[in-house]
Amino acid sequence: MPEPDQPSPQVSSGDTSVDPEAPVAKPADVPSVPDPEELVRRAESKAQEYHDAWLRAKAEAENIRKRTAIELANAYKYAIEAATELLPVMDSLEATLAADSASLEALKSGVELTLKQLNAVFGKANLTEINPVGEKFDPHRHQAISMLPSEKEPNTVINVLQKGYSLHDRVIRPALVTVAKPKNDRA
Q1: 121-152, pLDDT tens digit by residue?
Q2: Whole-model pTM?
Q3: Is it true that domain 127-187 has CATH number 2.30.22.10?
């Protein structure tokens, strides 16, 4: 603020003169402008980083594509192998049906051998049976059809109506079971 004794400076709209009493900017007050060469170096460095990241992402995508193609080819190959392994089982069943005058014992023996062949194929394919008699009911592996009063502990499987199967620890068909309920439960 000007002091009351002194007149206030008159500034006209076209006046470009500098006020001699105004503080002069010192070099420390002026923001330093980075060297253009430094800016170019920084930009090139960033561009190189982004280019490297892009190349890595592109390589990873290509690896995933190749891996998926190999896994798909193996899945087809495995399906063909599994079907090929089932052919002897089919042959045995057809031979049993073609037998005109086979005794009951001969038919039973042939079916038992066929079942052994089928179990061998299942074993090679890592297809395992779920037969949970006496086990605790597991809703992830079992499907309860009914609950019956039993002397066994509640929620224990007391009867298997249909075996379940799992393929590589993944349930492909749950076992159909009857589960024990407490005797005093009327529901």
Answers
A1: 999 888 999 999 999 999 999 999 999 998 89
A2: 0.54
A3: yes
